[in-house]
Amino acid sequence: MTPLTARRRETAVLVGVKTPDASIADLNDGLDELELLTDTAGADTAARLTQNLARIHSATYIGKGKVEQLRKRVEKECADLVVFDDDLTPVQVRNLEKALEAEKNNVKLVDRSGLILDIFASRARSAQAKAQVELAQLTYLRSRLTRAWTHLERQKGGIGMRGPGETQIETDRRLIGRRISVLKEHLEKIDRQRTTQRKGRGDQTRVALVGYTNAGKSTLMNAMAGAGVFAEDRLFATLDATTRQVDLDTNKGILLADTVGFIRKLPHSLVESFKSTLDEVREADLLLHVVDVTHPNAEDHIAVVNETLAELDATDKPTLMVFNKVDALEDKGLLDQLEAAHDHAVFISASRGIGLDELRAQTLALVESDYVDRIALLPVSDPKARAHIHSVAEVVEEEFGFASDAFDASASEQAVTRLRFRASTKNAPDLDRMLERFGNLRWVGTTQSADLEDESA
What are phi and psi of 442, to 5 degrees? Predict the structure, then answer.
């Protein structure tokens, strides 16, 4: 049997434009990230080409002279593709393909959204993730069909000379539209199922890991929950949301969810397609915002994540800043600055287990911030009710005694246990339903707990 040949890595030329509203540093940072995305997609960057413009050229993205320079550079590097740091319009793609003789030279043009979608398509593993990516790709493709059928166009008029290009484009749009409808219906069904599952976990505190892609969320998930989530030092290593139970302390478990990473200029179609996955963020009680503290643009990454959270209407949630990879940080003084700048912050190394105890303690403190103190009187003859409170709350004090019926003076006193406990407001409806069965009990006095335990037996 002939062994499979490894896929040849392609060669790419990156193109970016600096406009007045961006700095040189912003441009370089964007191209650095674009190079990482290109590498993740399976191509090596051979060259970069940039231009300062008052505004992006509507016809060719870059100026006419720069297009010619790009053509020569592509030929010199024998590049397989040209990657643009912004989204291209169908007109720009068509004009650039003509100017670069893309078909003749077998060169592909890819914009930032197209590149991200390609990476997502290669990383999708579950049926849900594949459907979400396909929906985003079709939404992206639908507005770019004009250039797909140029080989069917005819320039001459007259009877018998009208080409089928327009008809074919419309046919394709209808087919894509039908497929989009099927995918949306499928994802809505999954969304309903996930919503039902989340309702079943309504009495549990939900915590979501959010952050810029490659910040270390999956590594942290594995460190806290032993989840076995795939983690790799690449952008968008995982796409599927993974949820695991994590016990922070006795009777203080949380549901920890790992979510897809964010990135600047994240295609809006992806945000919409990944709605059911990102609902883990929308419906979380607490967010752990993971940041790669070693990245030179960590503050920009924080801003991008916050902007995306605003899109998801999730900016009002309690958030703990988790600065990861402190073991690789050279300037330790930066930690003091970050601690002063953020009210809730913890510094860890998820890969080496540094600071995880502090992370658990601070997470628990935020989880307990909505706890309320309550007192309950429960008949000793109903051990299940007592056990339930012990399972969902922190029992601070417990004593045994007797209680009378507040509405029936003739009723005999009964043995009870009085519990003072702290519980989350999320547990309040369930506890209220249980405790209202015993709402007429009035504490009379204490006795020896051993006697009452013998009596209940």
Answer: -120, 125
SS3 of 384-434: HHHHHHHHHCEEEEEEEEEEEECCCCCCCCEEEEEEEEEEEHHHHHHHHHH
C-beta of residue 271 within 8 angstroms of C-beta of residue 313: no
Put residue 77 in one of left, alpha, beta given phi > 0 → left and psi -120 to 50 → alpha: alpha
Question: How many angstroms separate the CA atoms of 158 and 398, rounded?
Answer: 95
Residue type, 28: N
Say if residue 450's pLDDT is above 90: no
Chain-centroid distance, C-alpha 428: 29
SS3 369: helix
Residue 110 in tokens: 């890819």
Residue 158 confidence (pLDDT) above 50: no
DSSP character at residue 62: S
CA distances from 234 to 89, 133, 216, 331 (A): 28, 18, 10, 24
Tell me how far apart the alpha carbons of residues 229 and 220 are, in angstroms, rounded to a whole number: 10
The structure tokens 């009002």 sit at: 316
Q: What is the mean pLDDT of residues 321-347?
A: 91
Dihedral pair phi/psi, residue 295, rounded to 5°: -75, 135
Which range is least confidently modeled, 129-133, 336-340, 354-358?
A: 129-133
314 token code pair:
């999730």
* Nearest-5° Cα angle at 158, 156 to 162: 65
How do the residues of the chain divide into helix, strand and coil, expressed in percent and rounded to 5?
45, 25, 30
**DSSP structure class, residue 79:** -
* 3 state DSSP class of 374: strand
Token pair for residue 325? 């990879």
- The rounded percent of the chain whose pLDDT value lies above 70 is 83
Q: Is 23 exposed, middle or buried (0-12, 13-18, 19+ CB in 10 A)?
A: exposed
Mark out the alpha helices in 143-273 (DSSP H runs).
165-200, 217-225, 268-273
**Run of H or E residues at 49:** strand 43-52
Q: Of all helices (H) and strands (E), which one includes residue 364?
A: helix 356-367
* pTM (global) more than 0.70: yes
Helix (H) or strand (E) holding 328: none
Is the four-CA dihedral 326, 329, 335, 337 of positive or negative sign?
A: negative
And the tokens for 426? 């999320």
